[in-house]
Amino acid sequence: MKRLLWTLLLLPTLAAADEVFLKGAGSISGRIVEQTGDTVTVDVGAGQISVPMANVEKITKGKTALDEYDARAARLKPEDVDGWKSLGNWAAGQGLSSQARAAFEKVLTVAPNDLEARDALGYVRVEGKWLTEEEGYRAKGYVRYNGEWMTPAEVQLVKADEAADQATRERERKENEAAAAASQKEYEAHREAERARAEDDDWIENTGDYPVYWGGSYGYGLTYWPSTPVVPNRPARPAHLPARPVSPRR
């Protein structure tokens, strides 16, 4: 059905077809096969589309390519191979894939080995037998993987590549998580240092004590200057600061 699929992709607008105009969403061209108070169903050749009447703005009717196909098919005799092939090609050109298939299948009932009809329907000849595309690939040892036909060896290579890609993505994910954790830890340490400095500034502002180092015959140590007496309601010394040492006698 490769040929039919390509023509479906190039589906033209049907001339003088039934036209269902949608509210703010374009229109659908084809043949109306059913219309009720709730829905309208349109055969567009490649299938049928049903639309709620609530979404329909208006409907105009006309002769469609489907009507033309039915008229042409009615004039053909079952044994008219050329006529059915011609109709099948015309239907494919109109985007009527279902009708094109039906016409070529009519050909095969009379001429089972007709190459044009077999090709249009996607058949391949393997060891003297006509097989569908899928049957032909499987007969040759191919398997379908990710929507494509491959040999088993090709499938193994693809799977190996996929596994390698997955491993790479997993490694990168872990590296990114580790980097994010390290960055968060560094950020939290910075915030803690900022908080400690803010506590120092508050302590100095409220007590007048400045941490200084002193030295001499008594050794070195941390004290505060000036050494102010205990003041009522003085704020508690930050926990990270050492207890105030006793100033040495001179």
Give the SSE layout.
Elements: H1 2-9, E1 18-22, E2 27-35, E3 39-43, E4 48-52, E5 56-60, H2 65-75, H3 81-93, H4 97-110, H5 115-120, E6 124-126, E7 129-131, H6 133-139, E8 143-145, E9 148-150, H7 152-207, E10 210-214, E11 221-225
Antiparallel strand pairs: 1-2, 1-5, 2-3, 3-4, 6-7, 8-9, 10-11
Strand content: 15-25%
Distance separating the two termini = 108 Å
**Largest sheet data:** 5 strands, antiparallel
Number of helices: 7
Shape: elongated
- Please name the fourth-level CATH homologous superfamily of one domain: Tetratricopeptide repeat domain
Whole-number mean pLDDT: 79
Strand tally: 11
CATH topology of one domain: the name is Serine Threonine Protein Phosphatase 5, Tetratricopeptide repeat
Q: How are helices and strands ordered from N to C?
A: HEEEEEHHHHEEHEEHEE
Radius of gyration: 42 Å
CATH architecture of one domain: Alpha Horseshoe
- Parts with pLDDT < 50 across at least 5 consecutive residues: 1-15, 227-231
CATH class of one domain: Mainly Alpha
Helix content percent band: 40-55%
Structural class designation:
alpha+beta
Give the strand order, joined by hyphens, for the main sheet. Answer: 4-3-2-1-5
